[in-house]
Amino acid sequence: MELKKSVLLILLSFAIISSCKNKEKVEEETSIKEVVIDIKSEKQLVENVMKSYKDAIQNLTTEGTFELFTPNATVFEQGKVEGTYKDYIDHHLGPELGHFKSFTFSDYEIHTTVNLPYSYTTENYLYTIVLKGNEAKGTQERTIESKGVATSILQKIDGRWKIMHSHTSFRKIRS
Are residues 12 and 58 in the same domain? Predict the structure, then answer.
């Protein structure tokens, strides 16, 4: 009788242990890994990209800006399709920068929405461009003041935010 109780107790112990291990395995298989994303930090990273681009333009250079854009990023300005960012630099902004004495932004505001792996920005600003005078052409230095707005879509690629779409427009400020 004592042997039967011992065997029964051993079998019962194995059944309980086996049941617990199966339960752990099921819980392990059905658990969902949570990834915590710090949206505030992501917004700051996006805004850093936009600031780097703005700073380059204010410094009258495109140096270092190509890494801020995807290779096939599209650029729209004032209702015109400029093409890729490379097209925009080669045929529009790049040559323009050579005619500028200065380009400064003021009253700058940015609003950023992050919805991984994409983000969306809206920028509002005033800008002042001082065009160089050209004696040979008989033109004098002049100042242009405008109010601008820009929207951009960025994508997080390999851990870095890159601009994939940019659309800017402006209107001259009336004196």
Answer: no
Q: Domain of 84: which CATH number?
A: 3.10.450.50
User: What are the pLDDT digits (tens) for 123-134?
Assistant: 999 999 999 988
- Angle (nearest 5°) at CA 76 between 73 and 77: 140
Domain boundaries, position 156: 39-172
Query: Is there a contact between 103 and 58 (Cβ–Cβ < 8 Å)?
Result: yes
In a shared domain, residues 53 and 121:
yes
Checking if the pLDDT of 76 tops 80, the result is yes
Specify which residues 134 forms β-bridges with: 139
Distance CA(154)–CA(121), nearest Å, equals 8
Whether the per-residue pLDDT at 21 is higher than 80: the answer is no
- Residues 4 and 54 placed together within one structural domain of the fold: no
pLDDT surpasses 90 at 46: yes
Alpha helices for the chain (secondary structure H): 2-30, 39-58, 85-88, 94-97
130 with 148, same domain: the answer is yes
| Direct distance between the N- and C-terminal alpha carbons of the chain, in angstroms, rounded to an integer | 108
Select the more confidently predicted residue: 6 or 111.
Answer: 111
CA dihedral (58, 143, 174, 57) in degrees, to 10, reads -10
